Amino acid sequence: MSLRRLPFCATIAIGLGLFPTAQAQGSRVTDATLAGYYAVYQNPFVIGLRKELDAYIALKQGKSEKWHGRGRTDKAMLERADLEQVDSQYLSSRFTVYKIEGQPFTGGRQVSILFIEKPDRIFKAWMYLTGDGIYELRGFKDSGITPEQIAVMRKSYEKLMLDREHAL
User: Are residues 72 and 65 in contact, defined by beta-carbon separation less than 8 angstroms?
Assistant: First the structure.
């Protein structure tokens, strides 16, 4: 199946519904499951998210004047993405993917990520594919998953959650 045609609300990564508990992990997580998970890093919405975060960082450092791949900064879109509220240590860190979901009312995909340099919060990014083929970051917020819940997940899935080989 094409990564662009993922089923609505397809859980991609380490959502608690996809991977088993730590006790059963060895018997149920197959190489095929891991290959499917690693393939998410080729998803154009995920790649687009990394490009958008890099462009935002370059914009804030004065190294670029572009946002969303355009020749000028769209201030309204920048404000809507709400990256000003996020510590730049998160944004400049590589991330692993927690989950990808379709956005039924607004279009695009919601990509939930964990930054591996600061793995204490999971963020939700709303990525949208425009009519002219540009992947835009249209929203970014904390997922609401508590640091305690993340710590529990890390006990079972640290290798995946902090995977530097595949992280973007």
Answer: yes
- Specify burial of residue 80 (Cβ count, 10 A radius: 0-12, 13-18, 19+): middle
What phi and psi values does residue 73 have, to the nearest 5 degrees? -85, 130
Collapse the DSSP code of 46 into the 3-class scheme (helix H, G, I; strand E, B; otherwise coil) and give the result: helix
Instruction: Evaluate whether 19 touches 157 at the Cβ level (below 8 Å).
Output: yes
CA dist list (Å): 150 to 6, 15, 77, 89, 100: 25, 11, 30, 18, 17
The model's pTM is 0.76
pLDDT tens-digit readout, 54-92? 888 887 777 766 655 555 555 666 666 678 788 888 999
Kindly state the tokens that stand for 57.
Answer: 């960082």
